[in-house]
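In response to reviewer comment 3 from the previous cycle, which asked for concrete evidence that the modeling workflow produces usable outputs, we include below a single protein chain processed end to end. The sequence was submitted unchanged, and the resulting structure tokens are shown without manual editing.
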Amino acid sequence: MSRRSGILEFAVLGLLRESPMHGYELRKRLNTSLGIFRAFSYGTLYPCLKTLVANGWLIEESSGPPEDAHAAPLTGRRAKIVYRLTAEGKEHFEDLLSQTGPDAYEDEHFAARFAFFGQTSRDVRMRVLEGRRSRLEERLEKMRASLARTRERLDDYTLELQRHGMESVEREVRWLNELIESERSGRHRRTGQDGSSQQGTSGEKDDLPRSREHSRPDSSDDTAT
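The workflow returned the following structure tokens.
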């Protein structure tokens, strides 16, 4: 399985854990809620859904027959297929949520993981956030070293592009520092599957940082090493 398809399967399972959906609604949620899937087609989504069904993690259900069953063959109208998470699929998704290996820190996968932090335990959130921060700090150090070596050979526009990339990484590191501090102090809130708000263990009001500079992880801000 490619990394990209693995991220998509993770996101599909996470959204369907919240509620069953048909393909169009699922694609819309992936586009609007998870920025990393802004540009992907049904040709990408439906093979993923078929794979998840074959693995026993989803089931397909008809949302009901057309209003006029006799007219269906003539009009081409068919009942919509709704995808529902199975018990095995829920267990598999929860296993994926608990993983904190290096893949969880990578650009696109981190954005998907962060989107489902409301369903993730606090200790796992902390490990993922700290791992992401460590990865970006390493990237930032390499970028600074590279810029110091090549500064004299760069024209003004290339130099400005390098600086922009560094500033993007620095901004995300600051954002991660704020998130980690909020988690450590107990200022967090989880959202249940029914959408209800659940306060953190400290009983304090949700106080996650709302930086105007970086309110959500977006892989487009990251600069490759």
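The CA atoms of residues 114 and 217 lie 8 Å apart. We consider this sufficient to address the reviewer's concern, and the full set will be provided in the supplementary archive.
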